[in-house]
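Researcher: Here's a chain I'd like modeled. Treat it as a single chain, no partners, no ligands.
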Amino acid sequence: MRVPPERFDQDLKVILLELARESLEERIFEQLGFIVAVLEAGGITIGRLIPGDGGAFYDCDFKVLSYIPERGEVIEGAIVELIDFGAFIRVSTIDALCHVSQMADDFFSYNSGQDILIGKQSTLSLRRNDVVRGRIVVVGMQRNAIRVGVTMRQPGLGKMEWIEEWKRGITAVKEAA
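Model: Modeled as a single isolated chain. Structure tokens:
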């Protein structure tokens, strides 16, 4: 039985796509960042055999969806974990750390019983699942991890409720002028 070439090419694309997904997704590459998904396979060359090896080898191009955090980038995400020295914010496929010193112009302390970070001089607080906006200030890429540091101390950053309050204050000042 002879397989039509177009059917063989389609079957090969499916196999190569699955192999690429297994070996590339959720891995970190210095030039590509975090590979979120392998979307499609294409540009497949004629396979070659290596004597003594039972497999066939094909050069192939892949279209991938990746994320590389960049310094200065403004991000939004939900808080996924609170600890005594800060909060981890889910940004795309990674968790970024916002240190307590970078949350606002206040000193935040962690209350483990309530799982909350509370401002010492203000009524500001952060809880798990709160949506926040921050600016990436530090990015470190290693073979198996991307480390991201975030600040929320600048105007227009922080918990979404803080930002809305800040906007209302700006509007009130403009209306008074």
